[in-house]
Amino acid sequence: MALTILSTLFLLGSTSALPQAQPPASPNIQNLTMWGTGCPIGAAGLISEIRNGTPVFSFVEWGLALPNTNDPENETTTSKFCTEEMTLNNGPVGFQVRIETVTVSGWAELEEGTKLVVEADTKFGNVVAGEQTVTITKEGLKGNDFEVPLEILPFIYSSCVDETGVVPKIAIKTTVSLVGEKRADGTVSKGAVGGAKALGVHFNPVWRPCARPMAKAI
Questions:
Q1: Is residue 217 part of a domain?
Q2: How many CB atoms lie within 10 A of CB 178?
Q3: Looking at 28-42, 105-119, 123-137, 195-209, which range is the least confident one?
Q4: Looking at the 3D structure of the chain, how many domains does it have?
Q5: How far apart are CA 139 and CA 131, in angstroms?
Q6: The domain containing residue 58 runs over which residues?
Q7: Is residue 213 reached through a cis peptide bond, with omega within 30 degrees of 0 on the bond before it?
Q8: With contact defined as beta carbons under 8 Å apart, do 130 and 154 qualify?
Q9: How many CB atoms lie within 10 A of CB 186?
Q10: Residue 19: inside a domain
Q11: In a 10 Å sphere around its CB, with 0-12 CB exposed, 13-18 middle and 19+ buried, how is residue 145 labelled?
């Protein structure tokens, strides 16, 4: 199921991770579509704020829980995902972009042995741009909160923005999973994600000028 939000404006800032120049234009979202088990229609991510020039998507119905530990027939894994696909216009002509990091934050309650697995996959159109997976245990939580920046690898850049100003379509898929530990008595360690706190997803783009074509030999 998909929810489309049109003409949502935001600035895509640059960072200093690699040599680059400030883009001469500020792209805006012309079309935004979301789908997945973590963002069904009517519960897709809202843009809760703008951070460092890019939107923070807030998913209020991303609740996950492992079944009751007293049932030996329990599944040991449960997961949800959401894909945000964006078409941008007014892009900086002669520049290309990559997704440097995708930061996922939220609330979790984990028993000893339960793992929270967060994965981000990115694409430019149909081209895979990079991915990353991070595993969090009970010891990695701050109270019941977590915030993990996933460094997207490898460093794949989009094609160049041409004179139309249309940026290659960006797709970011976020997957959150709970993996329980099967105990000797057949029970499974418990865990929950979500609760009353929304799951936040934020991406950080890096722009660089495209390489100039080599001059023809005379």
A1: no
A2: 24
A3: 28-42
A4: 1
A5: 24
A6: 3-209
A7: no
A8: yes
A9: 12
A10: yes
A11: exposed
